[in-house]
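Researcher: We're reviewing a set of sequences before deciding which ones to prioritize for further study. For each one, I'd like a predicted 3D structure that I can look through quickly. This is PilZ domain-containing protein. If possible, include the structure in token form so it fits the rest of the review sheet.
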Amino acid sequence: MGSENGSGLGGPQLPRRNARVPLQAEVQLRRSGQRHYMVNVYDISPEGCRLEFVERPRLDETVWVKLGSLESIEANVCWVKGTMSVSSSCVRSILPYSRRRSRS
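Model: Here's the predicted structure for PilZ domain-containing protein, in token form for your review sheet.
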């Protein structure tokens, strides 16, 4: 598979371990050295999410995503489509309990 972005940013897309679930919500996003701000999230899985950015991020940029009362999750920008649609891959699972529950 090739890049999902049409702007040349993003490497080959690897198969997802889990399907992304559509979601319409706001999450807190923080970029390195900046304050957090609210952004829209469009889909989510235990490994990542697709976000709307206010300013175009760099490919592989590290960001922190905070969902409600959960602690912030470190993520890396995987691809950028247009100026604001961004996919992020989380350093650790967004929902660590989901793996434990599925093994039961």
